[in-house]
Design brief:
Helix content is about 25%, strand content about 15%. With about 70 residues, it is an alpha/beta fold. The chain has one domain.
Length: about 70
């Protein structure tokens, strides 16, 4: 599961957004094969701001992947 967000600085995961992400992952698991794992990944140009909800993502891709 890949989430892509653009913001002017590090993106902040709020409690509400984390709940939405968990619901998306749950729906994917429900409709997919039961033997597959879901690996949540966030792509954001400036990465993530410190938040107690960042633990949801197994990988965060930030400024290192963008070439100017």
């Amino acid at each position: 599961m890949v989430e892509i967000k653009y913001s002017q600085g590090p993106y902040t995961i709020t409690k509400k957004y984390e709940k939405e992400l968990r619901n998306k992952a749950q729906q994917l698991a429900q409709f997919g094969s039961g033997k597959k794992a879901i690996w949540p990944v966030m792509i954001s140009p400036y990465g993530l701001a410190n938040s107690p909800y960042n633990h949801f993502f197994v990988n965060v891709l930030g400024s290192g992947i963008f070439i100017s």
